[in-house]
TrEMBL record:
Organism lineage string: Archaea, Thermoproteota, Thermoprotei, Desulfurococcales, Desulfurococcaceae
Residues in SHOCT domain copies: 160-185
InterPro entries given in the database record: SHOCT, YokE-like_PH
Species per Swiss-Prot/TrEMBL record: Ignisphaera aggregans
Domain YokE-like PH: 13-105
Protein name (database record): PH domain-containing protein
Length: 188
């Protein structure tokens, strides 16, 4: 990565998490805001003075839609998360933003059973690109036990491993994990 990422951002990366792309706010008097695309999630990082920051990480499993709007002089991202939350990042470099939306598309495609939808609209001055994660992927993490029939012990072992990974990544809560494990074990 050619840009040096802030120390607070680096400290919050998970072990072995790979940064695929990072873009920072183009103009402003304050320290820059960052949009970071990793192999596991999208991170919105707002660097502040005196080592302070705001950090928001959205795992791809909880992502619903990412919209990019490239205007005449800058770009804007809107990240929509399960539950209706929206995160906006403005005044990003237009060309860097285009590369970031492509990195998001490729990262979501890598985890999706079905490829994500991509919508593009080119205007005279700007363009809009949206990456929409398939609903199946949104449901997959929530209903992994119910949606996959289990008949063998190796199937159960694999599902238990997947559930643990989902819990460890913060996609499901500890309570959801225990409930799904209980239901899964009832099936054998």
């Amino acid at each position: 990565m050619s840009q040096n990422l802030p120390k607070g951002l680096i400290e919050n990366l998970e072990p072995n998490e790979k940064v695929l792309y990072a873009v920072k706010k183009r103009i402003g008097l304050e320290l820059p805001k960052w949009l970071v695309v990793t192999d596991r999630r999208i991170i919105a990082f707002d660097e502040k003075i005196l080592g302070r920051y705001e950090f928001k990480a959205i795992p791809y499993e909880k992502l619903e839609k990412v919209s990019y709007h490239g205007g005449a002089i800058g770009a804007e991202f809107t990240i929509e998360v399960e539950g209706g939350e929206k995160i906006r990042l403005t005044w990003l470099d237009k060309e860097e933003g285009r590369k970031a939306i492509n990195a998001i598309y490729e990262a979501v495609k890598a985890i999706a059973i079905e490829p994500p939808t991509i919508e593009k609209k080119k205007g005279v001055i700007g363009e809009d690109i949206a990456v929409i994660k398939p609903k199946e992927v949104v449901m997959r993490s929530k209903q992994i036990v119910a949606s996959i029939p289990t008949t063998s012990k190796s199937d159960v072992a694999e599902l238990l491993k997947q559930l643990k990974e989902l819990r460890d990544r913060g996609v499901i809560t500890e309570e959801e994990y225990k409930e799904k494990v209980r239901k899964l074990l009832e099936k054998i």
